[in-house]
Amino acid sequence: QVQLVESGGGLVQAGGSLRLSCAASGSIFRVNVMGWYRQAPGKQREVVATITSTSSTNYADSVKGRFTISRDNAKNTVYLQMNGLKPEDTAVYYCNIVIPYGFRGSGDYWGQGTQVTVSS
């Protein structure tokens, strides 16, 4: 099993910055994809950014140029640096790790979520 623990959410004014962290523990194969998703009230969960174990990244169009995802493989930790925050970024942010089928610990795992609130 894999456990994910997020930290770093909070309340910030528009234009401000926050940095989210997510530490993974348990049986984690080195080949995996980690990512951040978010869910605003009344909306579906959506992908924010993902990063592979070789640091290939993808971003939602709405956050390109403002958010940066990174990871530390030695610590099994993924980060999300969020700059230029907007009120529409307000949501619960969830950390995710996908370990491919056939590898140790394979599965799709989620953190408990951390609230990010951006005031106008």
Describe it:
- 0% of the residues lie in helices and 56% in strands.
- By secondary structure, the chain is mainly β.
- The strands form 2 sheets. Strands 2, 4, 5, 6, 9, 10 and 11 form a 7-stranded mixed β-sheet that branches. Strands 1-3-8-7 form a 4-stranded antiparallel β-sheet, with no helix packed on it.
- It is elongated.
- The N and C termini lie far apart (40 Å).
- The mean pLDDT is 95.
**What would the principal axes of the Cα set say about the shape?**
elongated
The unreliable regions are none
Mean pLDDT, all residues: 95
H/E element string? EEEEEEEEEEE
Main sheet: strands, sense, barrel: 7 strands, mixed
Question: Which percent range fits the helix content?
Answer: under 10%
